Amino acid sequence: MKVSALAESTDIDRTSTYRLVSTLESMGYVLRRGEDGAVSLTSKMANIADGFRDDDLIAQAITPYIHELTHIVLWPSDFATFSEGAVTVQVTTHKLSPMSVHRAVVGRHHSLFRSALGRAMLSVMSQKEIDTASVVAQLEAPNSQYIWDKKTIRKLIGDVRKAGYASSVGESEINISAIALPLRVGRVVGAVNIVFFRSAMTPQIAADRYLEPLKACVRRVKKALSA
């Protein structure tokens, strides 16, 4: 949540809210994201509250690893989770990448079925999780021109599992392609992608060049989250 939204929801003036957030940040209770200035809770907050969000802690844990990934591959990378029927970007490196034309990416929603991030998550879900996620996603997008029946979804997941990675070509954005891997640590945590211009290469070429660094990034994140 951004500080301005926090001020509005708490009915505290912005100056006081910024001061309170700065104090909490200096004490290690909150973290301000560099991408958009949004405020999230740290694990230290667990000492005084039980209601902190796992997504905030996971985003903090993954940030240094996808930053390192972008330094290696140059193309931007996103980490996203699935909640309330949408794949939502939680962390991005678009500002760090010389290959990106986007900046405001955090909070952007993608389709569970048409994005590489969503397809990656589906590929490691149990059948019960797939059925539940599919119903929720389609209820949240009732006006979609695409109908995703069980047969189509099974084929989609089968293709991802066979390839060893998820991909999309011009489906989230017409000129953008991506490859992605899921992140599962006991449960489906989310997915990490590498985004590139559709005209630059095919997903297969991207996988040939960048899948190993992407796998290494996911392994390191899993290790950090399991510690």
From TrEMBL:
<dbReference type="GO" id="GO:0045892">
    <property type="term" value="P:negative regulation of DNA-templated transcription"/>
</dbReference>
<keyword id="KW-0805">Transcription regulation</keyword>
<dbReference type="Pfam" id="PF09339">
    <property type="entry name" value="HTH_IclR"/>
</dbReference>
<dbReference type="GO" id="GO:0003677">
    <property type="term" value="F:DNA binding"/>
</dbReference>
<dbReference type="GO" id="GO:0003700">
    <property type="term" value="F:DNA-binding transcription factor activity"/>
</dbReference>
<dbReference type="InterPro" id="IPR036390">
    <property type="entry name" value="WH_DNA-bd_sf"/>
</dbReference>
<dbReference type="InterPro" id="IPR036388">
    <property type="entry name" value="WH-like_DNA-bd_sf"/>
</dbReference>
<dbReference type="Pfam" id="PF01614">
    <property type="entry name" value="IclR_C"/>
</dbReference>
<keyword id="KW-0238">DNA-binding</keyword>
<dbReference type="InterPro" id="IPR014757">
    <property type="entry name" value="Tscrpt_reg_IclR_C"/>
</dbReference>
<dbReference type="InterPro" id="IPR050707">
    <property type="entry name" value="HTH_MetabolicPath_Reg"/>
</dbReference>
<keyword id="KW-0804">Transcription</keyword>
<feature type="domain" description="IclR-ED">
    <location>
        <begin position="44"/>
        <end position="227"/>
    </location>
</feature>
<protein>
    <recommendedName>
        <fullName>IclR-ED domain-containing protein</fullName>
    </recommendedName>
</protein>
<dbReference type="InterPro" id="IPR005471">
    <property type="entry name" value="Tscrpt_reg_IclR_N"/>
</dbReference>
<dbReference type="InterPro" id="IPR029016">
    <property type="entry name" value="GAF-like_dom_sf"/>
</dbReference>
